[in-house]
Design brief:
By secondary structure, the protein is α/β, with parallel strands linked by helices. The chain contains twelve helices and twelve strands. The strands form three sheets. The chain has a seven-stranded mixed sheet, with helices on both faces. It has a three-stranded antiparallel sheet with strand order 1-2-12. A hairpin with a 3-residue loop joins β4 and β5. α5 packs antiparallel against α6. The longest helix is centred in the N-terminal third of the chain and has 32 residues. The radius of gyration is 34 Å and the shape is rod-shaped.
């Protein structure tokens, strides 16, 4: 645990607290010096059992009050320093990059909307990871780069679903070697991971019916070898009505990366947990992150303790007043 505002705020709080205490005690000291009443034979009074009982009771109450006030003051000083601890869960959840890689060729036009909706549900389940979207046909286009902004991801996926109704995605048919070039598309998606030196979990969710129509620069197997070399997990997503043989070939290919193929029926993935589990099971590696994003404020324990101590001090004082009356 650390103090985010240390040392300046804490020093200022300590000085301010000392000034308040001094301002409170000085008048009492002055008052006690000038309000004393001379009495004779006090030694006889002080040996009385009742007197000793009252004095000891008052000392106990004063001691309890002083301890409570000191603890409350210490808690308030700590709160001014803004105590925080590392957010290990944040680091764990944000240790994966997921590129959604979508085939937008003609053979996928009837199911792309369903795949996008399935992507939206999957992205919601993978909240906290960085997610990006790449669309490809004869060429690949980055729809949005890797980001962990959940609202932005969902809005971009929704907008992209509307863009599909307007015709081919600009730039996705820039090539002249055919269409649905799965190997080239996957290779392009692999290149969307930033920070090549980062040891992060990386996953490509490749949605395609695996119906090649043209001559790609990279075959599917060549792209898979690149993914294996880069330690990228490739998870396949195929329409449930896709050709069984093509899906089987896709399954055998992604299996080399440790991935599998999940079918999508309507807007629902057959088994979304399969992809989520595969992403979560990748080795979690520590990554560099700024303190602002890896620290969680720890306020409530100190706040509650300070409040309890102040209430206890007030209750002791109230009890004393009742006894005196």
């Amino acid at each position: 645990m650390a103090l985010m505002q240390w040392p300046f705020a804490v020093v200022a709080a300590v000085v301010g607290l000392a000034v308040v205490i001094a301002a409170f005690l000085w008048p009492l000291r002055h008052r006690a010096r000038h309000s004393a009443v001379p009495l004779d034979h006090l030694d006889r009074l002080r040996v009385l059992p009742r007197y000793q009982h009252l004095v000891h009771g008052q000392l106990r109450r004063r001691l309890i009050q002083v301890v409570c006030v000191l603890i409350a003051a210490a808690c308030l000083v700590v709160l001014v320093g803004r105590p925080a601890k590392p957010d290990e869960d944040w680091q764990q959840r944000r240790n994966h990059d997921v590129v959604l890689c979508l085939d937008v060729s003609g053979s996928m036009s009837d199911v792309d909307h369903d795949v996008i909706e399935a992507y939206r549900k999957l992205a919601a389940r993978l909240d906290g990871n960085r997610i990006g979207l790449v669309a490809f046909d004869s060429a690949a286009v980055t729809v949005f780069p890797l980001t962990d902004d959940a609202d932005y991801i969902d809005s971009q996926l929704s907008q992209f679903s509307h863009d599909l109704d307007r015709g081919p995605i600009p730039g996705s048919r820039a090539g002249t070697s055919g269409s649905s070039l799965i190997g080239d598309g996957l290779t392009s998606c692999l290149q969307r991971f930033d920070g090549s030196d980062d040891q992060r979990g990386r996953t490509v969710v490749l949605a395609t019916d695996n119906q090649l129509s043209g001559t790609p620069v990279f075959s599917l197997n060549e792209a898979i070898r690149q993914a294996t070399k880069r330690k990228v997990l490739v998870q396949g997503v195929s329409p449930s009505e896709a050709d069984a043989t093509a899906v089987s070939v896709l399954h055998d290919a992604v299996a080399h990366t440790g991935g599998d193929v999940t079918l999508v029926t309507g807007t629902d993935l057959e088994d979304p947990n399969r992809i989520i589990t595969a992403v979560s099971d990748q080795e979690a590696r520590s990554t560099a992150a700024t303190a602002r994003w890896t620290q969680v404020d720890v306020v409530w324990p100190f706040g509650v303790l300070a409040l309890v101590c102040l209430v206890a001090a007030g209750a002791v004082d109230l009890k004393r007043r009742k006894e005196d009356s």
